[in-house]
Amino acid sequence: MESSENDVVVPEIRHLLELDPYLKSHENEIRRRYGCFQEFVHTIDKKEGGLQQFSLGYEWFGMHQAPDGSIVCREWAPAAEGIFLRGDFNNWEKLEFKYHKLEYGKWELTIPPRPDGSPAIQHGSKIKLVVVTKKGTVVDRLSPWAKYVKCPSDSVVYDHIYWNPPKEEMYIFKHSHPTKPDRLRIYESHVGISSWEGKVASYTHFTKNMLPRIAGLGYNAIQLMAVMEHAYYASFGYQVTSFFAASSRYGTPEELKELVDTAHSYGIVVLLDIVHSHASKNVVDGLNVFDGSDSCYFHGGAKGNHDLWDSKLFNYQEWETLRFLLSNLRWWVEEYQFDGFRFDGVTSMLYHSHGMGHGFSGDYHEYFGLNTDTEALVYLMLANYMLHEMYPFMITVAEDVSGMPALCRPVKEGGGGFDYRLAMAIPDKWIQVLKEKSDENWNLANIIHTLINRRHGEKCIAYAESHDQALVGDKTLAFWLMDKEMYTGMSLVQPLNGVVDRGIALHKMIRLITHGLGGESYLNFIGNEFGHPEWLDFPREGNNSSFHYCRRQFNLADDKLLRYQHLNNFDRSMNHLEAKYGWLKSPQGYVSCKHEGDKVIVFERAGLVWVFNFHPSQSYTDYKIGVDTPGKYKIVLDTDSEEHGGHKRVDHSIDYFTCNEPWANRRASMMVYIPCRVALIFALAE
């Protein structure tokens, strides 16, 4: 008798169903998915000796120097008729060094050492594969396992650079992985734009200039974008061409290792923005048509194309694709000591529709029907299971807008295995509010609903604005709030105008309420902490290949005559206060007041009392608020203080005492002075 999903044992599914009883009606589907995952694990154990060995593909494939000085090269190209290796080591002769065919579409070449025992291919040599297709054409390709690729100044096509530095040139790690934080304050970064100068900044620049700044601002995590090599710079790193190569635009692999290691010296964890949802369509220097077919690592035909992104889609059921992607994750951890990954495009992976034209309503049938791509989901389960089993420090984040239930629950419960998901609705809500509502018409209940509307037991990373908003054609929060006044009204030597006054006040309040109420971790995109005044526009034909807008002007935040410093100061104060009180690791805040007329919000979290007055003009003296823990309170953060660019309307020397009169469903109450467009945080006096 055939087994059914009812027979699949999910070790801790009961805990998942207790956490969310609505999942009970979809238990069979959860068990079926887990059964598919379990089958892959068992098959890998049987055929490959386990995930540990299976995910070390980079040790076998690609190019490696043997102890005797010979060079061993291996590839998987099932549709190829022949493969050769050429480069400056053999004066680019196409057909001199021929691979011989192994089983299952694999190919191998061994190049003996020179008479003096030295390798025939030296460190830094340029090389390319030559693939003979079934049609008989002879084409150049780059190895999918290339560790370093570089674009010559006189070409637009990348070369594979054989990276095998002598021991004295290899970077030696000095610091271990930091202990896994119980909450994250993430600084999302792009190395290339991290300088105020109009150029591509380097790994070394980031290490020396950005890491001290990030640490000083109180962030304990960095998320690095655009590290996996991408031929098109303006793709923001999301059209990957070489998955194992650290982008050569910013420097060498050894310099990236130094960046990660130095971050660890500050106690900062480093997450890599990993793109396993799709790949660039580039042929000569990408994975596309690698072996002459339209499939290989991808689905063949229309199923292998992402129409919106104009990119290729992986076939997650193909054995060698699984090996390639799982090995890719191991590579970035083992070689570069990354502490985790932010998986890009998870929504696209999870659904056959790729989430296009689909507004998810939250109905559970949307997640457990035929539109869900089981193969992709099982890959994500495998990836998370492997990473968390092998690395106790591992952190994984899902970029998912759909709200897939259990995506951030352990695999052993039948979940997807992620630690966090991005709270993607929050930045959209702030943009909607700023675009469509005047200040006096803000719907506080709707804003609060968006901030706290997350799945119980699944941790979220809150953020007030996304990196996409920084791109040309869109607007950051600072731009929405202050627009052109950011160019003329930010000097301290001239009177503060109304637009900038409002913008600075709301910029701080929006970020603070998002930080305090929106999730279990927080994220900021590079430069937004001080309200960067210009959009981000990568050099391209449409702007005469200019780098003028492809930078972050940190000099503005450091200029003591400009108001940008105040936003920067506030970001620092906010993060350091969280480091002290730990509200991100505390249970969700209790909102005791959301007064639409007064435009006042009050909530408690981590023993702190948060009071926000969003009213554009009305200040309140002796405003009564509910407080659950009686005692004497002091102000510990004030958006209106002088160092934060405010008007200094609140006296910090005052002690605030609760009275025993219950208020707003809290056990006690307290009278506070709360000026317009100001937020205050109160803590029990120590």
Write a brief structural summary.
With 686 residues, this protein is an alpha/beta fold. 25% of the residues lie in helices and 20% in strands.
Task: Describe what this molecule looks like in 3D.
With 686 residues, this protein is of the alpha/beta class. Helix content is 25%, strand content 20%. The protein is built from 15 helices and 30 strands. Helix 4 (203-216) packs parallel to helix 5 and helix 6 (319-336) runs parallel beside helix 8 (374-390). The longest helix is centred in the N-terminal third of the chain and has 22 residues, at 27-48. The relative contact order is 0.09.
Mean pLDDT: 96
Question: How many strands, what sense, and barrel or not for the largest sheet?
Answer: 8 strands, parallel, barrel
**SS element count, helices:** 15
| Spatial ordering of strands, largest sheet | 11-12-15-18-19-20-21-22
Q: Taking Cα atoms only, what radius of gyration do you get, to the nearest Å?
A: 27 Å
* Total beta strand runs: 30
Task: Name the overall outline.
Answer: globular
Kindly state the percentage of residues in helix. Answer: 25-40%
